[in-house]
Write the structure tokens for this entry.
Amino acid sequence: MSQQVTETKSDGLRREFKIAVPAKEIESQIGERLSDLARSTRLPGFRPGKAPLAILKRKFGDAVRGEVLDRALNDSSRQAMSERGIRPAAQPSIEVTAFGDGKDLEYTLSLDVMPDIKPMDFSKLAIERPVVPVDESKVTETLQRIAASRKTNKLAPAGHAAAKGDVAVIDFVGRVDGQEFPGGKAEGYSLELGSGSFVPGFEDQLLGVKAGAHLTVKITFPKDYAAQELAGKDVEFTVTVKEVQLAEPAAIDDALAKAVGLADLDALKARVREEQGREYKEISRLRMKRQLLDLLNDAHDFEVPPTLFENEFQAIWNQFEQQRKQAAEGKESTAEAVTEAEKIKTDDEHKEDFRAIAERRVRLGLLFSEVARLNNIQVNQEEINRALVQQAQRFHGQEQTVVEHFRKNPEAMQSLIGPILEDKIVDFVLEMAKIKDKPATLEELIEIDDRATPKDDASGKMKQKTSVKKKSSK
């Protein structure tokens, strides 16, 4: 394609070009497309392929012109970048400034170019791998939890006062303003005290009761209770305690092992140790990855593309504002709560912190992309299929819908592929690094420090967008 390209801006990694495509190129493409339509389109009164070009142009002209414009912009911009050896770091932006019958196509192409990235010699990296031996006391605790999950109940001795963990077999009737309500009545219901399976306050009032007891339990339903007709209401339950049962965990023996599908107790212990070791290794790898990202960030100091930086900063800021809003409304989870230290910072101080995080994220993401490109590290179809299956299994009964969602949604699919690719790059780098095992306790391994922040990942930066974004013509 013949075109005239003039560079109008070169500022760091920012580039801007004014591009003109001759009108004859556009008209030629429009003519070719209309000729294609003439061969395949049937119009009333004309034999197949014999409709006059003028009629086709009148009927399909606007659609064809729009189609040709989109194709010309994509082809022309890719050609301009290719001829200059430009690798866009983010999605380029196009603004059409002139286009019409008999006129040249003129537009402005704005983009950030990839910085010059030279990955360090990874063999010079020194990383400590925390190693925690299997803790036999933790193995015992796990066996006890398994035994407790297969507990049986036996009738408590006469006069036994119900305690947490005991089961009270009860009849109850609930009333609001003296009237029974649907779902508020049961007979012979087995309630484990302390399980939290009933409305808050109900189980506490049964502590200390004995078989044969009759009592009235008064509670107030939570204001956000699912059944709106009961939300915030004062309710009285008439309760009769028919039995008190003692819960007995299963014996930790070969029978317990067989109940969970293993040959004997030794095999069960071996499985628990294996799972514990795997869990420790996963946590250890996360700590190694954090060390690695810190070292890589410190060892590479290239300019980051402004567009990627601004997008990342805005994403972090939006997430923070959402969490802050939730905290103000009292809806935050423990993991998302805004800490007191964060609350006393000004917005400018927050933004300064988040800009540093955004710059780190973008730099690591670009570095990882370059390592993947130079070493042909890719995610294969088998790995994608495995990840799809894992995602689908989280939604029982909707597996096919989940799979189709990912296959039809490129952004969702990229959210699946990005972390897989990142892990493969981390493994690639760690294979070359000098790794020294360091004995550690479980407490040291799982210690949460101030660096456990969003800056500790590079996911999502593996994909470099190279398609163009078109703005409307002035």
Remarks:
- The two ends are 24 Å apart (CA to CA).
- The mean pLDDT is 87.
- The chain has three domains: 4-112, 122-132+261-471, 152-248.
